[in-house]
Amino acid sequence: MLSWLARKVLSHNYARLRAGDYRPVLRFDARDVRFRFPGANSWGGEYRGKPEVERWLQRFVAAGFQIFADEIVVKGPPWDTTLILRGHDFLKSSTGETVYENRYVIWAHAKWGLIRDYEVYEDTEKATAVDRYLAEHGDRAARAYHDAAPAAA
Predict the structure, then answer these.
(1) Helix/strand/coil (H/E/C) assignment for every residue in 84-106
(2) Distances, alpha carbon 5 to alpha carbons 13, 70, 102, 124, in Å
(3) By CB neighbour count within 10 A (0-12 exposed, 13-18 middle, 19+ buried), where does 68 fall?
(4) How many CB atoms lie within 10 A of CB 28?
(5) pTM tops 0.85, yes or no
(6) Please, are residues 14 and 68 in contact by the beta-carbon 8 Å criterion?
(7) At what angle do helices 124-136 and 140-148 cross, to 10 degrees?
């Protein structure tokens, strides 16, 4: 029952995210949420608190990523809930060419309906590659990250 309800809510929230509205996703984050996105790219890091996660989501939407939850598992009582999402995301260029495709798993912990912490697991090499693409196509954060990174030996 919980997984069914979570699927309904997340399907709606991800549809809004794909349409450019990140607020329904953010609404389910606790004020002191902790979000981790691993990888050596401009997306990677640990983000603490709703304002930091909001900036990350704004950038995600502005870049045009499309995200889908393919499977959702929910377990535990309302005061100690674990959510696991397995899904895929992609990005298309302005000409419609797919420049990024990846699969992900999000492991999250919630308390009374609010996400307290979550981490994304995905192919970080693909995330780094799309980061380079974005840097070449005007994404300021990606450009700054790559300009500051030491040159490969």
Answers:
(1) EEEEEEEEECCCCCEEEEEEEEE
(2) 12, 14, 25, 30
(3) middle
(4) 16
(5) yes
(6) yes
(7) 110
Q: Kindly state the tokens that stand for 100.
A: 């990024």
3-state SS of 22-59? Answer: CHHHHHCEEEEEEEEECCCCCCCEEEECHHHHHHHHHH
User: What tens-digit pLDDT sequence spans the chain (153 residues)?
Assistant: 677 888 899 999 999 999 999 999 999 999 999 999 999 999 999 999 999 999 999 999 999 999 999 999 999 999 999 999 999 999 999 999 999 999 999 999 999 999 999 999 999 999 999 999 999 998 888 998 888 876 543
The one-letter code for the residue type at 30 is A
Q: Select from 73, 83, 72 the least CA-distant residue to 110.
A: 83
